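Worked example 2:
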Amino acid sequence: MFKYQDHYFKKAQEQWFKARSAFKLEEIQDKFHIFDKTTRTILDIWCAPWSWIQYAVAQSQENKIQDYKIIWFDILDIKVKLPNVFTYKQDISDQAKVKEILEQNWVEKIDLIQSDMAPFTIWVKDIDAIRSFGLIEQTLRIYDQYLKSDGKFVIKLFMWPWFDQFVLDMKKKYGGTKIKLFKPQSSRKESKEIFIIKI
C-alpha cells in the first residue's frame, strides 16, 4: 500500500498515532473546539486505522472526563485496547442493529459524531466522490436520531457535483452559523477532501 510519507506521516510515527489523519482532527479541534468537558459520548464511524480514536481518547483524558464512552462502527473487524472504547464490525446502514448496539451500551444521545469515512477508492476522483456521498447518506439518519440538539459532528466529504447543495441542506437543518467547512493543512494538497463541522 502506498504511504504518503511527508512531515505529518513522520510526526504520526513520532507520536505513536496509527495514521497522519490524527493531525486533521487536531487542527479541527484547535479551530472549532469540538471536544470539551461536556463531550462524554462519542460515536466514531469508520475511521480505521483508528488514529481519530486515539486522538478522541487523548482529548477525553486531557479534559479529565472519567466516564467518557466511545462507540466505533467499522466494516473492518478491528479490535483495539484503549480505555472506554467499544468497537463493532457493523454496517451502519443497518439501522436496527445500530440501535441495538447503542442500547446495549446505554447510549441514548451522542455528544459528538466523528466520521473519517471514505469508500475504497479506485483513484477516479469524481467516482470516488459520488461513492463517498452515497456512504454519507446512509449515516444521516444516525445524526438525526442520536445527536444531541447541541451536539457536534465532523464529517469528511469530497468535492462532488452536489456538494454545494448538500452543504446548503445541512445549514438549513442545523443552522447556517453552526455549519463550518474546513480543509486542514495536513490534508494532501491534491486531495478533494474537505470537512463539514457542526459546532
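The CA atoms of residues 9 and 20 lie 5 Å apart. The chain has one domain: 38-189.
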